[in-house]
Amino acid sequence: MSLFLTRRFFYLCAALIAGFVVAFFLPWLLGPMEILLGAAGLLTLLDAALLYAPTKGSPTPLFGRRVLGDKLSNGDDNEVKLFLESRYRFGIQMEVIDEIPHQFQRRDVLFEASIAPGQTQVITYQLRPTKRGEYEFGALNVYAASPLRLVRRRFRCEEGGRVVPVYPSFLQMRQYELLAIHNRLTEVGVKRIRRVGQSMEFEQIRPYAGGDDPRTINWKASARRAGGGSDTLVVNHFQDERAQQVYCLIDKGRVMRMPFEGLSLLDYAINATLVMSNIALIKHDKAGLITFANKPGATVAAERRPGHLRTILEVLYRQKTQYLETDYERLYATVRAKIKQRSLLILFTNFETLQGMERQLPYLRALSKAHLLLVVFFENTELRTFLDAPADTTADVYNQTIAEKFQQEKRQIVLELQRYGIQALLTPPQLLTVNTINKYLEFKARGLI
Q1: Most CB atoms closer than 10 Å: which of 77, 99, 102, 329?
Q2: CA–CA separation, 95 vs 97, rounded Å?
Q3: Same domain for 419 and 367?
Q4: Residue 375 above 70 pLDDT?
Q5: How many Cβ atoms are within 10 Å of 204's Cβ, its own excluded?
Q6: Does 38 share its domain with 63?
Q7: Phi then psi dihedrals of residue 245, to 5 deg
Q8: Could you give the dihedral angle defined by the CA atoms of residues 178, 179, 183 and 184, in that order, rounded to the nearest 10 degrees?
Q9: For residue 275, which of 300, 298, 248 has the smallest C-alpha distance?
Q10: CATH number of the domain that 163 lies in?
Q11: Alpha carbons 358 and 342: distance in angstroms, whole number
Q12: Looking at residue 199, what is its pLDDT?
């Protein structure tokens, strides 16, 4: 069924009914009301005829299509465009209803627009998925009305059934990649870290230029050059040490199911891993991945070959949270078997209590003996909001005291890890990516990797 009556039609019917009721008491009004009823019927038929009239050179007078990428970026605003083209000879009013996937739980994707004869209208809106997986789009329904607006004709421009996968946040990855290429990472909070010591590899010698560090002058090479003067001086040119291995270890246990602003902590870790792997590749290091829960998960060996980031993206797309306790003993066995070279291990997990961390401390210490281990876990920002609220009652004071105890315990976990020489990062979920990149760049500046 494609023909629908509008509110204006029902208002007209209500007015005619009221007129006939009055005509019952005023018989002279019956004739004019019958004429009005006939006119209303003719207008309705005319309105329907206008909407269903054939269009020359086209099987349908209204075209519509939905344009979006072949995949969506998890946790980001993804742009969706609706292109609507009218072949009618008159302007039309439209109501557009896009049947978006049920995962979004939205019922407000309805737009009103008008199109002049022969023109095209573009409607743009945003969708923010919060779970990875496959999302199925339904039909694109367009309800068109002529200037009379007594009836509407429905067009189903997209019959639905298109499935679009939601991948880890590749939009965030591209943003950081562009900023890194143009040396503008400071715009998103990445710090400029001054290099400490000499942790660079010799690349080449080049002529001395004003502003070069005199300590880099190669006096032997300069002496071999003919002539004299400052134009004969050459300096050693160094580059960052390359081909270091950077592994992201992602805990998929139940502690990573906690939600924050729609996304689970696992998805925050996955998004940060994708960006971190890309930054490592840009810095000429090798990026690898290990996931784990109650048993070992996926493993991607650290490489720097073409297409390697795509491999990491596909593996991250398929990861799901487990409901069981994480087995760190198996993680240690996996790392020992798979990673033979000293590497930077970035462990994304979550410790809520000091006792919970201490149970895993022997395995963390064992990992840190052979590798540079960075343990990344999450600050409960909702507790901070609760602590900042005024305490008006005795119950509020008690609750804030308990909340402060949990906050203090998180800070104690950091200190305890550092006491055993393990690097630790306590971060809010929304700052996970930038804080992790800062730590990675700090390690490179200090020559730790």
Answers
A1: 99
A2: 7
A3: yes
A4: yes
A5: 10
A6: yes
A7: -90, 130
A8: 150
A9: 248
A10: 2.60.40.10
A11: 24
A12: 47
Domain that holds residue 346: 170-194+242-445
- Tell me the C-alpha distance between 416 and 344, whole Å: 20
State how far the Cα of 87 lies from the Cα of 60, in Å rounded to an integer.
Answer: 8
Residues 10 and 159 grouped into a single domain: yes
Angle, in degrees to the nearest 10, between helices 394-419 and 381-388:
140
Residue with tokens 């490179």: 444
Task: Please write the tens of the pLDDT for every residue from 211-244.
Answer: 666 777 777 777 777 555 546 787 776 555 557 9
* Alpha-carbon span 210 to 121, nearest angstrom: 58
Rounded to 10 degrees, what is the CA torsion of 96, 97, 99, 102? 140
Q: What does the DSSP assignment read for 37-82?
A: HHHHHHHHHHHHHHHH--BTTBS-SEEEEEE--SSEETTS-EEEEE
- Both 73 and 176 in one domain: the answer is no
* Residue entry with tokens 């790392």: 335
Least confident of 56-70, 93-107, 203-217, 339-353: 203-217
Q: Do 93 and 163 have their domain in common?
A: yes
Nearby residues of 214 by Cβ (< 8 Å), 6 or more positions away: none
